[in-house]
Design brief:
The protein is of the alpha/beta class and 137 residues long. It contains two helices and seven strands, in the order αβαββββββ. The termini are far apart.
């Protein structure tokens, strides 16, 4: 039996494609890591309320800000003024300070890892006070 040139070319092409597929070529694209996917971090948002300067002890709401270890605490400024939240007892939790959060919409996030309780206030407007509680998960 005699094969034509087209048959030989087709056989060579199929052989090449099968060889490439067997080598697991991925065109240089990185492969996703194997193993379990990392657990996403839960984000809890704490808001500086509109008109916060006149709200004094209620500038962050009428309850303490409560978050659990391993969660991300996201401070969001919903007021029109710039605020900067600081912990009164920074050794009590791992939250220290936000830096200036322009309003409205300024934000900063922290992953909380150390349980504890601290009073908080705005360093620009010290009458704005509240409490931050970080609980063990």
């Amino acid at each position: 039996m005699r094969l034509s040139f087209c048959h030989m070319l087709s056989a060579a092409a199929v052989s090449t494609i099968v060889s490439m597929a067997g080598c697991g070529g991925n065109d240089g694209m990185p492969m996703p890591p194997s193993g379990p996917s990392p657990t996403p971090v839960t984000t809890a948002s704490a808001y500086i309320l509109p008109g916060a300067v006149s709200l004094d002890d209620f500038a962050f709401g009428d309850e303490p800000v409560v978050i659990y270890t391993g969660e991300r605490l996201r401070w969001v400024n919903a007021d029109t003024l710039t605020h900067a939240i600081v912990a009164d007892s920074p050794a009590s939790t791992d939250f220290r300070a936000t830096g200036e959060l322009p309003g409205p919409g300024g934000e900063q996030s922290f992953v909380m890892t150390k349980p504890g309780t601290t009073a908080i206030h705005c360093s620009i407007h010290p009458n704005m006070t509240g409490t931050l509680i970080v609980r063990e998960r």
